[in-house]
Amino acid sequence: MRVVVAGAGIGGLATALSLHAAGITDVTVYEAVEEIRPLGVGMSLLPDAVRELTELGLYDDLAEIAVESVELAGYDRSGGRIRTEPLGLAAGYAWPQFSVHRGELQMLLLRAQLAWLGAESLRTGLRLTGYAQTAGGVTVEFSDPAGNIVTDEADVLIAADGIDSAGRALMYPNEGPPSWNGLVLWRGTSPAPAPVADGSTTVVGDDEQTFVAYPIRAAEGDRPALLNWVAARPSTDQPTEFGNWHRPVELDTIARHFGDWDFDWLDVPSVIENADVAYEYPMVDREPLPSWSDGRVTLLGDAAHAAFPIGSNGASQAILDARVLARALARHADPVEALEAYEELRRPAPGAPRSAERVEVAASYRLAAGPDPQELNERESYSVDGVDRTER
């Protein structure tokens, strides 16, 4: 079976690795940008996603670049502690929860793909622009920055190209742009003060305004730990770009809303002012689709089920999508049946609540805890051979 993947983000790369692990090695990943660089800020990987990376044999590499998350500590706007909740191993999961720089995780997956599948498995500077299906396959069309057309033949096309997915637009050309819920996040990274450099995720604020911080890199020698932070509040100015997660923002724009958030254990203004980078993230998502697939073509990750960029959802869910899809393709001779099996397990049932209907959760940044620990610990492995590789 030959598989073409559009998008070399975390979802697309995890798909290539999952396909290889499932015995499907004729895979090419196409990426629109010409050079893949470690962009972005921090993110959390929930235990269910860490399990999948562990079963791919990537646990040790992941642990080297990440910080284990041990607790979630919530505070009100005056700095008073409200609650503390265990995370990962401390919450009873067989796998930890990690915090990691998104770009570093992407580069880890990229290195693994090139090592496992070879340099020829990645083609950059080519954006998905069309596909045409026959009874026996799909012809996929890409264009380069000069407008030249490149085609490829495959048994299956997987569009893992994000919230502004070209694959989704080809499948649903009348959908329109993502919807905005009135909130804006600002995200950045800063040298981490000692009190929040120990694996604790700190959430300060209320449903009106929130600041979240957690370490994504441990201190080493003279180099301080690196703190990922998120500042959230309503905005009356509608953003001009939806789905652009790398739009820089001036630090003064953020700091003026948090000027008096200086606590004994966390100086929020100082964290913001010392940021290495900061970006604006409008809180946007998309309506659920009636189907993720069109014959031999399917969607994965944010292209299929775009989520608000909070709560540890996007990357973790894309990794789970990749593993389930790879297993389905390995177990079904008919690609169309495989995509149906993938959707049956991964696509929410009609009427299930979507993230845009849970604005209060987004506003207060209550991190998703993931599935029930016992349910995850006892669940069948998504590995094709059914072996649960839990050694770490």
Outline of this structure?
The chain is 27% helix and 29% strand.
Description:
The chain has 392 residues and is an alpha+beta fold. It has a domain at 2-49 and 99-178 and 287-354: FAD/NAD(P)-binding domain (3-Layer(bba) Sandwich), CATH 3.50.50.60. Helices cover 27% and strands 29% of the residues. The protein contains twelve helices and 20 strands. The chain has helices spanning 10-21, 47-55, 59-65, 102-117, 166-171, 251-255, 268-273, 302-305, 314-331, 335-346, 359-364, 373-378; strands at 2-6, 26-31, 42-45, 66-69, 71-75, 81-86, 97-101, 122-124, 127-134, 137-143, 149-154, 156-159, 179-191, 200-205, 210-217, 226-234, 247-248, 277-285, 293-294, 297-299. The strands form four sheets. An eight-stranded mixed β-sheet has the order 6-5-14-15-16-13-18-17. A six-stranded mixed β-sheet has the order 8-2-1-12-20-19. Strands 3-7-4 form a three-stranded antiparallel β-sheet. A hairpin with a 2-residue loop joins strand 19 (293-294) and strand 20. The longest helix has 18 residues, at 314-331. The chain is globular and about 65 Å long. It starts with a strand and ends in a 14-residue tail after the last helix.
Low-pLDDT windows of residues: 351-368
- Which radius of gyration do the C-alpha atoms yield? 21 Å
CATH architecture descriptor text of the domain at 2-49 and 99-178 and 287-354: 3-Layer(bba) Sandwich
- Note the beta-strand portion: 25-35%
Oligomer: single chain
CATH superfamily of the domain at 2-49 and 99-178 and 287-354: FAD/NAD(P)-binding domain
Count of individual helical segments: 12
Tell me, what's the shape?
Answer: globular
